[in-house]
Amino acid sequence: MDAYTERNYTLLCDFYELTMGNAYLESGRSGDTAYFDLFFRTVPDNGGFAIAAGLEQVIDYIKSLHFTAEDIEYLRQKQLFSEDFLSLLKDFRFTGDLYAVPEGTPIFPHEPILTVCAPVIEAQIVETFLLLSINHQSLIATKANRIVRAAKGRPVSEFGSRRAQGADGAVLGARAAYIAGCSSTACALSDRAYSVPAGGTMAHSWVQMFDSEYDAFVTYCRTYPHQATLLVDTYNVLKSGVPNAIRAFKEVLLPQGITSCAIRIDSGDITYLSRKARKMLDDAGLPFCKIVASNSLDEYIIETLIEQGAKIDAFGVGERLITSKSAPVFGGVYKLSAVKPAGSDEIIPKIKVSENTAKITNPHFKKVYRLFEKETGKAIADLLCVHDEVIDETQPLELFDPDATWKRKTVTDFIAKELLVPVFLNGECVYESPDIETIRNYCAEQIETLWDEVKRFENPHTYYVDLSQKLYDIKHDLLKKARA
Ligand SMILES: Nc1ncnc2c1ncn2[C@@H]1O[C@H](COP(=O)(O)OP(=O)(O)OP(=O)(O)O)[C@@H](O)[C@H]1O
Ligand SMILES: O=P(O)(O)OC[C@H]1O[C@H](OP(=O)(O)OP(=O)(O)O)[C@H](O)[C@@H]1O
Ligand SMILES: O=C(O)c1cccnc1
């Protein structure tokens, strides 16, 4: 952690979390333990799955939670909070438990990706930061992965900082994009703070600064002979940009035996220009010169460019990735699922009822199992269970659709993996966030466990997130009671 990462975000909460906290204390409820689940309801862009990200920042936040004297004075001046509450805030720390799905895990609607069980004031005050961190990075990771998949193995560099929504949007967006498979970022701070490899090409301004495009290219090649990606569309791609790039490469790089070079096309019809440029480069004896494309790209344009036969080796993607332009909200929510009253050992499940059945919550302190087919390693379904249930892999397991309980299937020869891992226990951090390369590799591996039907862009297959019989019964009992 350093100056950028160790910021104190304790007051980055919604004000009602503080007023409720004060009222919990005043009404004698502050000793109750609250259980909250963080989950989302729909996959952005109508995709078949999302990718969890943002946990490392949640951990940093929880570790550094504290109200400064100035924060407390600010709250005192609101004349809403008791002195008892303000003095509780002086020593405020997170003392509870937090379980989460590791970053990079594919996730599905309605399953907890993070569960907090903590004294109610603590559990409530962390709500906003937990949501904003997981919502933002999961959104960008999900979008970036779609773009990476569309590129079919061609590297995708993240170019979006300049059009991101604020500093964290840029720096943490670049982190999420890298986890999800982007090959690099243009953002230097994301590299320094989070080890996301930074790199880049050149701006139009570089080309404009020189009397000729050729001078601009030669000067750049001389300074960076091993990293010369020349931007060829400042004046005219085919009449000047590509011929000048060929001249510069031949004069500066080839005599040194350097064959790693590229051009970047940033406007016009990318298919047409890339095909023509490819032929010109090949005819000039530069078949190794790569072609990079950029300009308001996203997964749909990349897919169509490849279908059209564009000759692109790598993509740079900015605004539509870093803002997740086509689906800018992740929609993760944080809902109370159970309460353990002070002095009691009983966990009482709670439900939130809605006319909209998709918005009815899954009650209780839960476990999430992902079931994998032993033979193929592919994910079959996720199963939400009550916290004390254990799945026996040696026995056949009957799964049913909680919305259509007659739809049943029995699975055998499966592996059941618990998705939520302990991150904090009694306020102690018990989880070490893996380094970013490990998270990125894990993400790629886990996406491989999904069937292609779940991964396609058009009408992806709905992956099953089922309830155990015990959880289903508890939920339906609570619903009946709520109706009564
Ligand atoms: N062959 C293609 N098929 C589909 N979309 C394309 C193709 N070539 C380029 N595009 C996309 O079309 C859009 C064109 O953007 P725009 O209208 O700004 O044109 P432009 O050539 O970039 O103009 P400017 O010179 O102002 O940058 C971009 O999103 C680009 O990625
Ligand atoms: O289109 P995006 O997906 O957001 O990709 C990033 C864009 O940012 C740069 O343009 P900009 O006009 O900001 O600077 P430039 O003059 O260096 O091209 C770059 O040339 C790309 O076009
Ligand atoms: O390095 C690049 O080519 C780059 C960086 C930021 C935005 N657009 C392009």
Automatic annotation (TrEMBL):
Pfam families the record matches: NAPRTase, NAPRTase_C, NAPRTase_N
Highest taxon listed in the record's lineage: Bacteria
E.C. number: 6.3.4.21
GO molecular function, one term: nicotinate phosphoribosyltransferase activity
Domain Nicotinate/nicotinamide phosphoribosyltransferase: 156-340
Keyword Phosphoprotein: yes
Similarity field: Belongs to the NAPRTase family.
Record-given protein name: Nicotinate phosphoribosyltransferase
Organism the protein comes from: Merdimmobilis hominis
Source lineage: Bacteria, Bacillati, Bacillota, Clostridia, Eubacteriales
